[in-house]
Amino acid sequence: NKKLLDIKQLKTYFYSDEGVVPAVDGVDIAIFEGETVGIVGESGCGKSVTSLTAMRLTPGKVVGGSIEFDGKDLLAISEAEMRSIRGNEMAMIFQEPMTSLNPVFTIGQQIGEAVQIHMNYSKQQAKTHAVEMLKLVGIPRPEQIVDEYPHQLSGGMRQRVMIAMAMSCQPKLLIADEPTTALDVTIQAQILDLMRKLRAERNTSIMMITHDLGVVAEMCDRVIVMYSGKVVEEGDVVTIFTNPQHPYTQGLMKSIPTLDSNEKRLYSIKGNVPIPGSLREGCSFAPRCEYAMDVCRRQAPQLEEVESGHSSRCWLHSSDQGETRNENTAH
Ligand code: SF4
Ligand code: MG
């Protein structure tokens, strides 16, 4: 299987009067053709900035690393080339479709726009295509909806329209950032079903950004856990759910709501994600970690393989015991 997206040591920093925030701080993410990879973590951990950087839409500054997509170096190509990839070979759906749908254009015009730009469709062809896409995403009365405006649709319908827009050029990679978070459970299940169907029909790769581990369990082949701008654990979905190694991942797993609880995304991990870069030394999870040792506060652990295809960034299972070993032998 071929690597479609290959992000290496990516660094996206934000600069302000208060200082530098390394929102994405040396992140590696690979996504293979047809694969669905979940990027998980609480808000503020760098998931969205990573995906926006991959689309070259980040408001931050890329200060290091590389992004290769389908053999192209995305950080080196021109803005014109990037525009032809964006919305065409790479497409994105967001949590709140109202912010990405334009209120003054009809649904048909918006779905049709991408194929008019990227595939040179005529207006009439674009409209016919839009109707087909609306059918594909299960919108009832597509011939009528195609001439309606976003505000005339429900939230679930708007999210379907977003998916229709994103899928209309048959992208190789779909980036979905909290695609179902704002929707009720029934609509959420329908949207996930729809994404699975599209993936099966078109072999689309999906980067699924979410803090909802239920979505990850249902959709993903592989999981990347991010914390404070870094990848802290990575593995296939079964491994991450059954044998999480990093204390942060273990905390996330404990906070999965049970079936009889209505409370969603209830975190049992005390404290908040630190602003990336605010802790100058050591493991950024140390202030919240029940296993934190002296070495954790002094020296940052590296991402290391704990078994084949499964990596974690934690001193607990690191082969290199850092300074502690030196100290112990010195005393
Ligand atoms: Fe906890 Fe230390 Fe592991 Fe960080 S390195 S997660 S503080 S045990
Ligand atoms: Mg986000």
UniProtKB/TrEMBL annotation:
It is a peripheral membrane protein. One of its GO terms (molecular function) is ATP hydrolysis activity. GO terms for cellular component: plasma membrane. The keyword ATP-binding applies. Residues 7-253 form the ABC transporter domain. It comes from the Bacteria. PANTHER family: DIPEPTIDE TRANSPORT ATP-BINDING PROTEIN DPPD, OLIGOPEPTIDE TRANSPORT ATP-BINDING PROTEIN APPD. This is ABC transporter ATP-binding protein.
